[in-house]
Design goal:
The complex is a heterodimer of chains A (435) and B (241). Chain A has 13 helices and 14 strands. Chain A has a six-stranded mixed barrel. In chain A, strand 9 and strand 10 form a beta hairpin. Classes of the chains: A alpha+beta (435), B alpha/beta (241). The interface between A and B is large, with 43 and 57 residues.
């Protein structure tokens, strides 16, 4: 070995200039960079550790999105029923002490429906309806559907719009003209692509002119297709379709009552009960003759159960976040043990305990946040994919996304604290000797 | 008040099993700035305890230790850490480099805890590496460097904050004798440029490069001898600036 050519370096004797004064301690940004490079040094392990958080956050986002989508669907179904709607139909009818069963015999009349808005000022519209399932024939097509005979108020109460054609007129309603409006489902099944307006359909061999097609509503909260029906004036239905025995010549099966905006639904319901007690001459100790349903209430119950379900799913997802957090703690403890000498060195060169604490805590938080961010991305993508594949409505809840990210960060902070404390409390002498 | 190190009755006891171990007992030492001192003794002699106390990694059970005029024995852990960063540069037997960082990052690391901006950190780290003759190896990771080069990186790291005292713990213990000589020559060069060095070793040949040797036995300082240093550079024939 040649003494001269061997590369030993020639040290420069010039001393370094004095170190400029700095702030004491590790800055937040520097600690973050150090934490990032520590994570980058062990990418696979970091990725596997973040996996728990990742799955938790993705699960939260997917379940919340699907749950919110389901709730939104229920809410739009509630709206499709018509707001502030009370449905009245006949209750138990007794004849000579014998119960005939609810709704078996109509006990309300067209005149009851007409009287309601006069008697109860809070009612905006009331429409008596009879309905029957009947076969509808057009050319060589036929379709079985519900035929409703009702009043113009019915369209108001149930918030129907006309997609094509028109509603029937007052004159047509009172004179019993053979006109009908059909729902979208009926239009599709009988007419296909043809425009039904002006065509003639037959019900029980009687021809009716289709004067309009109603706008689409879809399913109601009970899952029934609201577009599968035909509507015609009450008197038309009475005279031309459903027959009219003398006893039931003016009867209606149900009355749709729309309560004016801002009125108390429960109060109007009470007034309606009182109205029917009086009108049907029901004594105070006798059972009521009508049933009244607040449809939005039923729907609200469904909404509440959808909410409970999504809460439950979110709770399950939260548990997986917890498990992910324990994974972070586990790996951070391993990391502290592995890097004991490094910690000893950092303490020896002037790191304060809080610097070490900050460094390891940030590492855990960054790890969890990276997992959380990946979980957000994949969760959103997965929610959309699932929604598209399963035909479910999906609604990304951005506040839930923000919450999931915040919670993953907090998970890192919480589960990272103990390992970081352990790192910070190491004795530098012992740590430097650690093998 | 011109002493760099001043100890009075410096004592460190450790609790142990059914009693107390006196790792260091009543040491009185004074070291002036610019000295190159070796602390010698077999293992268990107290020299490592002495080093830990001088390095502000530990605090005495009894007695006083003043580093550059500041009493260390009563300082808070925070202030102790700051003092290590400001006044002491450590060189270890096993280098203690961060394995995944290059030489430059290793040397920059101590300044991280001093709030020095990155640009100045880099400049100073480059200067410190030049000073130990590693200007061409700045971006090598420890595994790409020889043992001697790794120890040079560690020395650059110890120098980078401009410490009052360089503390070396068996700096040649993990090196072959030739490389060890190079390291000692570097220490001597640094010492000539004004760096105060305290070097702990069990090896009398290493202690010979210092100008003064403290001999420890059974936790006590039993000899404090000043002697002319052997010139390490002359032994390997490499001229040092």
């Amino acid at each position: 070995m040649n003494v001269i050519t061997r590369e030993v370096a020639r040290p420069v004797a010039t001393p370094l200039p004095p170190l400029p004064p700095g702030r004491a301690g590790l800055s937040f940004g520097e600690a973050g960079l150090a934490a990032l490079s520590a994570l980058a040094a062990n990418k696979l392990r970091a990725a596997l550790t973040a996996l728990g958080i990742f799955i938790g956050v993705a699960a939260v986002i997917v379940t919340v999105a699907v749950g919110a989508g389901a709730r939104q669907q229920v809410l739009s179904q509630i709206q499709s029923l018509g707001a502030n709607l009370l449905l009245v139909w006949g209750s138990n009818v007794r004849m000579g002490g014998v119960s005939l069963g609810a709704g078996q015999r109509p006990n309300m009349s067209w005149d009851d429906a007409q009287a309601i808005p006069r008697e109860i000022p809070a009612v905006e519209a009331a429409a008596g309806t009879i309905r029957q399932q009947l076969q509808i024939v057009y050319s060589n097509q036929n379709w079985s559907t519900w035929v409703n005979g009702t009043d113009l108020d019915w369209f108001v109460a149930h918030e129907w719009v006309v997609a094509e054609g028109r509603f029937f007129s007052e004159e047509e309603a009172t004179s019993g003209r053979k006109v009908a409006l059909i729902g979208q489902t009926v239009a599709e099944n009988l007419f296909g692509d043809e425009n039904p307006v002006g065509r003639e359909i037959r019900i029980r061999a009687t021809p009716f002119e289709v004067i309009g097609v109603l706008g689409r509503k879809g399913q109601n909260p009970m899952g029934q297709d609201q577009d599968d029906m035909v509507v015609m004036p009450y008197w038309t239905a009475r005279r031309s379709v459903m027959g009219a025995s003398r006893a039931f010549a003016r009867s209606v099966g149900s009355i749709s009552v729309k309560v004016a905006e801002g009125e108390d639904m429960a109060e109007v319901e009470e007034q309606l009960r009182a109205f029917f007690r009086q009108r049907h001459r029901v004594a105070a100790n006798e059972p009521e003759t009508v049933n009244i349903r607040n449809l939005s209430e039923i729907a609200a119950t469904r909404d509440a159960s959808a909410r409970t379900l999504s809460l439950l799913l979110a709770a399950v997802a939260a548990v997986s976040l917890l498990v992910g957090g324990i994974g972070v703690m586990n790996i951070m403890l391993v990391s502290v043990t592995e890097r004991t000498r490094e910690i000893g060195l950092r303490l020896a060169v002037g790191a304060r305990r809080q610097d070490i604490l900050r460094q390891f805590l940030l590492e855990a938080v960054l790890l969890a946040l990276l997992g959380g961010a990946a979980g957000v991305a994949v969760g959103i993508a997965l929610a959309h994919t699932l929604g598209a594949a399963g035909g479910w409505p999906v609604l990304i809840q951005w506040d839930a996304v923000a919450l999931a990210v915040a919670v993953s960060g907090l998970t890192g902070l919480f589960f990272g604290y103990w390992p970081a404390r352990r790192a910070a409390s190491l004795d530098p002498i012992q740590a430097l000797r650690h093998e | 008040m011109d002493a760099l190190i001043e100890t009075r009755d410096l004592t460190r006891h450790y609790p142990s099993g059914e009693g107390v171990v006196a790792a260091l007992e009543g040491v009185n030492v004074s070291m002036r700035p610019g000295e190159f001192v070796a602390a010698m003794g077999p293992s268990g002699s107290g020299k490592s305890t002495f080093l830990n106390l001088i390095g502000c990694l530990d605090q005495p059970t009894r007695g006083s230790y003043r580093l550059a005029g500041e009493e260390v024995g009563t300082l808070s852990p925070e202030r102790l850490a700051a003092l290590r960063g400001e006044k002491i540069g450590f060189v270890f037997q096993s280098f203690h480099l961060l394995p995944r960082s290059d030489a430059l990052s290793n040397v920059m690391m101590p300044m991280l805890y001093r709030g020095i901006p990155p640009k100045i950190r880099r400049e100073r780290a480059e200067m410190a590496l030049e000073r130990v003759g590693l200007a061409s190896r700045m971006h090598h990771t420890p595994s790409q460097l020889s043992g001697g080069q790794q120890q040079r990186v560690a020395i650059a790291r110890a120098l980078v904050c401009g410490p009052e005292l360089l503390l070396a713990d068996e700096p040649t213990g993990a090196l072959d004798s030739r490389t060890g000589l190079e390291i000692m020559a570097l220490f001597q060069a640094l010492n000539r440029s004004g760096v105060s060095i305290l070097c702990v070793t069990h090896d009398p040949d290493v202690a010979a490069f210092a100008g003064r040797t403290l001999r420890f036995r059974d936790g006590r300082l039993f000899e404090d001898e000043t002697h002319p240093p052997v010139d390490a550079a002359a032994m390997i024939g490499v001229p040092f600036a």
